[in-house]
Amino acid sequence: MSTSVVKAVYAERVEALEGVKIMLQDSTVTVEGPLGKLSKDFSHTGLRLVLEDNALRILCFKKGKRFKALVGMVAKLVKNMMEGVLHGYMVKLKIVYSHFPVTVKYDKSRNTVSIHNFMGEKSPRVFEVPFKNVDISVSGQDIIVTGLDKNEVTQVAAIFELATKIKDKDPRIHIDGIYVVEKGLWRREA
Length: 190
Hints:
Number of strands: 13
Structural class: alpha+beta
Strand content: 35-45%
Largest sheet: 4 strands, antiparallel
Helix content: 10-25%
Number of helices: 2
Order of helices and strands: EEEEEEHEEEEEEHE
Distance between the termini: 60 Å
Number of domains: 2
Radius of gyration: 21 Å
CATH architecture of the largest domain: Alpha-Beta Complex
């Protein structure tokens, strides 16, 4: 009888950054750092995750470019989680208008954002922020979205842009809206 060892077709190793601790339970990766804690479940990927020496190994036993991309995606998501608990993420948005002054109000207790007087509309455009761990600050014409999870922060910024999308008008003339002007790390130590 021959015993054969199945070798991983694609494998990637993600080293923990200094000051970050990685924990693994089944397929849920938890990353803990100075700013907080993030968890993400990767059970839907079908990959094998192994924790060894504060480094995460991502293994795939199937061939194909789809599985190679999946290994790379999971590795990048874990790296983003580590950067998030170390520094956090930030997106700056700018309110732009040509005639009607737009005001944005964020109600933290109800977790809703209302955009008033957009294109002279009488009723405000209101949307609920789908994530509790994202902080929004509005000062004048600037909106700053901050948080630990990169996906959540950029998703909220995209919701701001989509809430002020103008349809059926020439975009070269009607420039009113809320636009992303800067993305990056929130608390970067020099």
